């Protein structure tokens, strides 16, 4: 049983079928092929953003770091949550790609930044002068690293503050599908209509093998971006195989269907946590359960060989209750979910 | 008809089958899965290098740039041929990854550096002091960007010069399979036994969707390399799909079989060039034909809509004969090869 | 009246005399001159470190960033205090020079990290794996950004924790002279004998025009450092003028004498703060007074045109008491100090 | 006797006097002082460029690299001469500061690029696409690394080609004073009136201790530049000492007077080379003599302990005639010049 991460799980068969369908004949390389054109169009359609520039890469770290570097100079300050993936989990890729931009982190309940905190932080940032660097970008994650979501109003409030300070807003959407599935809003409402300037739309955790879309809603913000992507080794010569994955997810609402499945499984686990007397550290709003469970329940799970991470600090030893993270994917077996729920309940 | 590049062509069905086979169940991410372990072992076996560190990335540019950055400080001088892919075709990725290393280019017949030229250049390099930077790495491409090959003796001669100067030797093997297929030597003879310290073993042009292996024959040279790869966004969370591709190629000699097929098609085109009175700019030793053909033949091919690149300067207009490059892949249709040969012959 | 910064003040006449003395005849450039040799030797003597590698640069930001980049790879984690100059005041220079290293900040009373906090943080850092980067360096500032000092025992405790984790210890000594003047210990006791691996020994704030020494106590840690310095534009061709400044400060104890003078003036201001009912946020242990003073006193000082910074947040408006920083230099006029004391006291 | 470099020589007394004059009282740091304001204004006046943004740094490598990074993205191509200082003598600083920009070098007689060669090279550069990077900047050196000069018409021809391709033109003017002294034109005619967009105006080789001005004629091109300079450690806190040096040189035509003196000495040496049967590799148009002299003359000079560099390859051994470089400074003793002339003549 594996609840360690959604990237532990497989790709959806439709993704592999799309790849196989793309696998015939000669096409021009580096994205100048018809599958790529169709996939980019599909993402634009999905977002109701006909002017947007859409590009693909194979990893979420690349997607975020490339967009950060595109939108921040080396001397830029990038504002994000303390627990943002770009801060905690990308081995300083944003700093590397941008040549030194500083991630300035903000505290916020549930993995979310709130607009007032952002406003206050930007005010300080406006005063740091040469010493502190220049405010450049605000980045949020949706769904967050704590499994919660920003709704369109919350996004719009942040965008309003960012824009008032002259800064663009980036959304790390590694689990964007999970957020949309929960919120029931349109992707456009959650992004550009709310003021998002650049979106990383994750495919990998949603059921691709390894594919992410980067979307610049204003094409002017993508100036030179293809060179940047190439220079970092993230332009695939046989780009059709990357594009086909995103095309499959964007077709017939597969991406949302998969996200719904994953979210539902997380709900089951969340209920089991509550049943056993555990505490949900955050409400279950996507495909992750963040909870503190009785040590006895943790011990049972360990004894059964269940895989998951202690959270947020993997080095924790001996705590009771035990803080942990359980992540589900579209294809986490329902039997495993049920078994884990049973183990939790003892 | 497409002779523009081997990356215009498809992936071998066995590659897709291997990917599909890997697509079940949950595994740990970031390379801690059994397919990755098997693929790394397969590459070590193929190279008779049981101690080597093997890692995978999705693009050749990433592979070369990561290895260059691993083996050169920011103030390093990396010696390569004038026409080396790392110099001409990677958008300064080695400079970006290494934070500024300078590519010092050497002239050499047939895309090859010769040992005497290297020795002389390194002597100059040893004298440039702080102003010029510190000699750090020698990089060669095999098969070369001109379709020729270095044989093991030639590699050994270069390695000897490089090592005498304290520098490691890197081989860009984007078309390593094509070189081995031509030479009939063992991969080990062409690499570590000849003194190669790091190899980029290409899968993409050989029949993968997008997969390359990076091999450090001395594990000490790979110190910290996984962090470097992660920081550049080149660690795939679902690494099994990348690894499965290399595993398929390494299984039952598929990689060499595919290279043989591509090479054979190039021989057919090369003969047609000669037949029409064209001049082979280099002998056909891998899967590329570099030739100057009568303008009339070029005009016929253009009229027929055949795709290929003028070479080495894509901006050439009106020359007669016309310098060009024709590249074949394992799956370039034999009918297309025959048709192109017929067009050339008029 | 200027209490904004010690770098608002002038250079000591002996520094200019030394520069003038160096200004004759032809010498070899880039540090291969006799003044540089003497100045490097003088710093080694001052530190009782005959094997140390000593180099000079013109700014403290360059000194710190170069040393950080020398001791941390791009994927390194550099541990420092929340208020460390390298974190707050160098425009992300350490990140730029290192190509992306992440500064991981620690809370600590009085601008000091304590050993237990460091140990705990390093334990977490050891567990972050590829995602979080690799622990690389611990950096402390002495005297701190809050005007306090680490004594040799405190340094040794931190060094012990750092070394146990395999990390070197860097000391930003922009105001090292002020710390030594307060502590009365030997420079060696406060650095290498306590486990410091690299020291940035500041001259600029101590009475130079613009000169800082970087010291690597183990020459092996300086491998390639001259290239790094050159590549960042920090090797002066006429290095004698830089070296002469440090030589002057190191001669006949001038550096300590100047630091004593500055420290003494800060004591006077600190007493005035107390007298007016203000609160010292930290004890006055070097040449800075960090205090919260009644708004009325602040208003009097503003009305008199006294220059100083609100602290730690320059954007604070309307607070009472008013948090601020007063900095003295060797040549802050005693009359100004007295006048400011009088203003404070009303 | 030292003819190794103009940076082997001293600073003019007026420079030290200006520094001493600046050395009193408290001023705000980081360039917000009156001396800096006056020095920036003096440079603007000298160039008849009232709108220009002028900033100072302490080294020529920093000046060039900062301007290159300001005007080129990481994926940019910077066009310069094969022997450009930025290519041969700055330890890849432009690549480091820009995060990877590629220097594309052009051959040209006398260290000069000619407009036709540039036009042809840019045409190729326009065709390299993602693989080759994007053309970003043209950089020339005046006086050149071969002691020759571009006159205003030659600069204008290059600027015209660069601008037609949408690229700005940078002039490395480490020896700009020497060029102006030879040409007798106005600094404005040789720069912005001829189309130069950014100038590095050297003070160090002209008689400063270590000071260079960077000038952006269009302020829009300097957007964010102060942050860039700060992040690289090149903002001096006590900037007045840097600015005072440039102010001294710009006052009463001192800079041109010093350049005339140096140029005149080079003429004497050049004549001696001709007299002894040596060959001037280039006409003597500034303060350097590039010549091939009979080995016997070289042996005499070596026996007399005269310092100079073999050129362009410092590793040359045993050639006859011996290619070398002799550089003069404003304060190279006339007696040494006469003595060297005598040695050459045997």
From TrEMBL, chains A, B, C, D:
Co-factor(s): pyridoxal 5'-phosphate
Gene3D superfamilies to which the protein is assigned, alphabetical: Aspartate Aminotransferase, domain 1, Type I PLP-dependent aspartate aminotransferase-like (Major domain)
InterPro entries the UniProt entry points to: ArAA_b-elim_lyase/Thr_aldolase, PyrdxlP-dep_Trfase, PyrdxlP-dep_Trfase_major, PyrdxlP-dep_Trfase_small
MF-aspect GO terms: lyase activity
Keyword tags: Lyase, Pyridoxal phosphate
Pfam families in the cross-refs: Beta_elim_lyase (PF01212)
Superkingdom per UniProt: Bacteria
Subunit description: Homotetramer.
Similarity section: Belongs to the threonine aldolase family.
UniProt protein name: Beta-eliminating lyase-related protein
